[in-house]
Amino acid sequence: MNACRHLDPLDRLLDAAQNALSTLLGSPRATRPNPGQSEPEPVLDDRQRQHAAGLMRINHTGEVCAQALYVGQAAVARDAATCAHLLQAAQEETDHLAWCADRLRELHSRPSLLNPLWYAGSFAIGVAAGLRGDGWNLGFVVETERQVEAHLAEHLQTLPPADTRSRAILAVMKDDEARHADNARAAGARRLPMPIPALMAGMSKVMKAVAYRI
Asked: Does residue 10 fall inside a structural domain?
């Protein structure tokens, strides 16, 4: 991703297109070691493996959405510090994306077939949020991370107990999401008015239900 610098509309479009292609079609590279690699590969029966794969597919899709959201927000951010904050968070989400992709392969599964749709919708939401101003921009970061942290906590409870590899990945992701939210609050995030958080939660619920299976 480019540093926060002035881009004309065509450059911004090309930059966003490049990120979309690398997220959806490329092999994301993590900058940090996969937390699950130090854990032994668990012995899971078919039902447990399918459930773990469904949960990791949801989390992979969530990271696709996070990439799109933050890149869309950064594209229209008015302040260089806000832009830098968003791109830094997006880089850490790339780590999460790579770790989830690795775990899906280990579980002999695949990402959601609808990831292009999730990416497009999240990018549009990110741009819309960014156009409202940097305070609202950061407010969306806080609410997004709060909801992601909640569903990661739920997944940590419902993963097969033996799947310590997936559990190690989700635990680090959960800590990262909480830190992103704290950083956004410190940077001047505004509290989102109702019904925006409820609408975000409703969209997330639909995504999780679909991505678990498709």
From this structure: no
- Max Cα–Cα distance, the chain, nearest Å: 53
Both tokens of residue 141? 């970061």
Domains: count for the chain: 1
Domain encompassing residue 131: 44-211
Helix residue ranges per DSSP H, the chain? 9-24, 46-76, 80-106, 115-131, 134-158, 164-186, 196-211
Quote the DSSP letter at residue 37.
G
End-to-end CA separation in angstroms for the chain: 29
pTM above 0.90, yes or no: no
Q: Which tokens is 175 given?
A: 């800590």
| Tens-place pLDDT, residues 10-33 | 666 667 677 776 777 767 788 899
Residue 25 lies in a domain: no
Pair of tokens at residue 124: 């549009």
Cα–Cα distance, 51 to 114 (Å, whole number): 19
- What CATH number should be reported for the domain holding residue 143? 1.20.1260.10
Q: Alpha-carbon distance 101 to 27, whole Å?
A: 9
* Residue entry with tokens 């409870």: 157
Residue 23 within a domain: no
| Conformation bin of residue 136: beta by default, left when phi > 0, alpha when psi is -120 to 50 | alpha
Tokens of 89: 């968070």
